[in-house]
Design a protein that fits this description.
The complex is a heterodimer of chains A (445) and B (210). Chain A has 22 helices and ten strands. Chain A is α/β, with parallel strands linked by helices and 445 residues long. Chain A is globular, with a radius of gyration of 22 Å. Classes of the chains: A alpha/beta (445), B mainly alpha (210).
Chain lengths: 445, 210
């Protein structure tokens, strides 16, 4: 496996080394295609004040200049200025405008893929208010057009495109897992009629999962199934299109992103469901709720909701009953960037946890101002940047320590993977759970 | 001589405004994408927030952590606006009363000191130097000179000649370099407000809605 990784890395380095002028031209062409009035305004606006530096977990952890958001932005800005501004064309040195070369491509890969989780915290702290994460994403997309996405991330995208889900789970295995979970559910709720519906037509909700759940965390699916059972909900899973993730969002490839998200749209049509429910997955929510209609250039004829919105509604309307004393340990909450800062799901998880646990301590800062855990932006898939990812995660580890919590709730499986690694690396001694797993522990059936 | 220079200032100002309008319109030549995702909040509220609370130190961590730079930025830009108003009054030969001139002197002088401070910071801090380009230094110095001459010409009318000359040069440079942010700042803040407002992220909601 290790030698295979090295081989993969070597071939990627080789690909960079052998970049042809046509490749660079294509990067520029795609970059130009991806620009719109918003990006053009952003790329003309940076005043290089550097106040964004301390907002980035990479910079805070390493104090390295290439980790400063303004520096990362300048890598894209220099190309924009060279080709699209008067001063950049006539006096490039004056505004640090540069022509696209292999060295710059290499720096783009290292900084835009390797030192950014697209968390968007810098935007909130930018003196001007630029959406730096989305600019970095379009530069990533330009690199994707010439197959310059780091191998781990690209293979995750490829697997999703080829196999229908990012873990490459065969359809029979998925169906078998659902059947097994259904049997478990029947035992747990002591009801032989309890169901985990698959391809049920005209159900109210179509629930989607992160493929890591059937593979490694089946209890997450079980938790949601139990909540739906307790609420008496009309819901279903799809046997074909159930993957909520969209790593095209991280590689910046809009074509692939559209293709992946469109599968869920097709399932909605095929099954005749009213609401697409996104599992606890940050980028899955941002992708499918906010970005997919833009990629697909169409308005959805159905609602897209986070499972947290659904569970919060059940709790508030009394459709499920929770006993917080069943969760007596102190719980803190990690806010996934794509769900909270980009997604607008902020208070639901707090409302749920306050009903489900006895002691809830907020991290500081929290909500849209929260720090990224370091697992976003496709970082977990890019092993070549793993050391940096763990280093940058120190900010989150320190935040967790300060709360004194024994359980960290995180409504995102990517974040959970990173938090589990941070737990081990920084010896935090905490348990990491999804919000629904905590809810189900408090559920009174 | 002064009359000619006044025409020079007016002409360069006009060129500046036309160029900035062109610059904003040019951004639309890259295409404008309509929104397809259903809104979850209000863009207008987001814009209102973007120009108000979002920039306050208690709301914005970067402002809070760098309170001196933040205040220097506010006084610097405040001084610039006052100096432009002073320039305008000179061009239209408006007689300013002494209390106004006194307040202008204080604000412009403070703006100048803050401008020099920001320039020094850019030179001293390695990280800031690394992300800067010659335009950043030149723009700062040019504006500092503009402020210095505005300040001094309130005491020595003979310096108005130089104040008009630097003002004309400044107006011609604004659309080319970083000072173009004088217009793009407002453009980007609107985009910021729309983005977070539509998504229901900002302004923050206290309760969730069913």
């Amino acid at each position: 496996m290790k030698s295979e990784n090295n081989k993969q890395k070597d071939s990627f380095e080789e690909r960079i080394e052998n970049l042809r002028p046509e490749d660079l031209k294509k990067v520029l062409q795609i970059f130009h295609q991806k620009l719109n009035n918003q990006y053009a305004a952003y790329l003309n606006s940076c005043v290089h004040c550097g106040l964004c530096a301390d907002s980035c977990h990479y910079y805070l952890a390493t104090k390295e200049i290439p980790a400063i958001p303004a520096y990362k932005l300048s890598l894209v800005e220099q190309i924009f200025k060279k080709y699209f501004t008067l001063l950049g064309k006539k006096a490039p040195g004056w505004v640090k405008a540069k022509a696209l070369t292999r060295d710059i491509v290499q720096e783009w890969i290292d900084s835009l893929f390797g030192r950014c989780t697209l968390c968007g915290r810098c935007s909130l702290n930018c003196s001007i208010g630029m959406n730096i994460a989305y600019i970095i994403r379009i530069a990533r997309g330009a690199l994707a057009s010439v197959a310059l996405v780091p191998p781990g991330l690209q293979s995750t995208v490829d697997t999703a495109v080829e196999k229908g889900n990012n873990m490459g789970i065969a359809k029979e295995d998925w169906i078998e897992t659902v059947k097994w979970l259904e049997e478990e559910l029947r035992v747990e709720v002591d009801d032989p009629q309890a169901k985990i519906p698959l391809d049920k037509k005209d159900a109210k909700l179509l629930y989607t999962v992160n493929p890591r759940e059937p593979m490694f965390f089946p209890l997450s699916i079980m938790a949601v199934a139990k909540i739906f059972y307790a609420a008496g909900e009309s819901w279903t899973l799809s046997s074909e299109n159930y993957d909520v993730t969209n790593y095209g969002f991280y590689s910046g490839d809009d074509g692939v992103s559209a293709l992946i998200s469109d599968r869920l749209v097709k399932s909605m049509g095929k099954l005749g469901t009213q609401t697409l429910v996104i599992a606890e997955c940050g980028h899955g929510f941002n992708s499918n709720r906010w970005e997919a209609p833009e990629w697909l250039n169409k308005k959805y004829g159905f609602d897209v909701k986070s499972i947290l919105q659904i569970v919060a509604e059940y709790t508030r309307r009394g459709r499920i009953k929770l006993d917080p004393t069943k969760n007596a340990e102190t719980v803190t909450l990690h806010d996934p960037c794509n769900l909270v800062r980009f997604g607008g799901i902020v208070e639901e998880q707090r409302y749920i946890l306050k009903q489900a646990v006895t002691h809830f301590n907020e991290m500081n800062p929290n909500r849209e101002k929260n720090f990224c855990c370091g697992g976003g932006g496709g970082q977990l898939a890019m092993t070549r940047f793993a050391k940096r990812r763990l280093e940058a995660g120190k900010i989150k580890a320190d935040q967790i320590k300060e709360t004194g919590a024994k359980i960290v709730a995180s409504p995102c499986h990517n974040c959970i993977d990173q938090l589990l690694e941070l737990n081990k690396h920084y010896e935090l001694g905490v348990k990491v759970k999804t919000v629904c797993e905590i809810v189900v522990d408090a559920l009174v059936i | 001589m002064l009359a000619v220079l006044k025409w020079g200032v007016s002409g360069s100002f006009l060129i500046c405004i036309i160029s900035l309008i062109f610059l904003v319109l040019k951004t639309f030549s890259f295409g404008r994408k309509p929104h397809y995702a259903r809104s979850q909040g209000e863009g207008k509220k987001g814009i209102f927030y973007a120009f108000g609370k979002a920039m306050m130190p208690w709301e914005k961590e970067s402002a809070r952590r760098h309170i001196l730079s933040y205040l220097a930025g506010i006084f610097y830009h405040g001084g610039i606006f006052v100096a432009f108003f002073y320039l305008f009054s000179l061009v239209i030969s408006l007689e300013l009363k002494m209390p106004f001139v006194f307040v202008f002197r204080i604000l412009i002088g403070l703006g100048f000191i803050c401008g020099i401070g920001i320039f020094a910071k850019r030179i001293i801090h390695t990280s800031l130097r690394k992300i800067s380009c010659p335009d950043d230094f030149a723009a700062n110095l040019m504006v500092d000179l503009f402020l210095a001459l505005a300040f001094l010409s309130t005491f020595y009318p003979v310096l108005k000649t130089y104040f008009f000359i630097i003002s004309s040069i400044l107006f011609l440079y604004i659309p080319l370099g970083k000072i173009r942010h004088c217009v793009l700042f407002f453009y980007v803040r609107i985009l910021f407000g729309l983005f977070y407002g539509r998504r229901g992220v900002l302004p923050q909601k206290i309760k969730f809605e069913i």
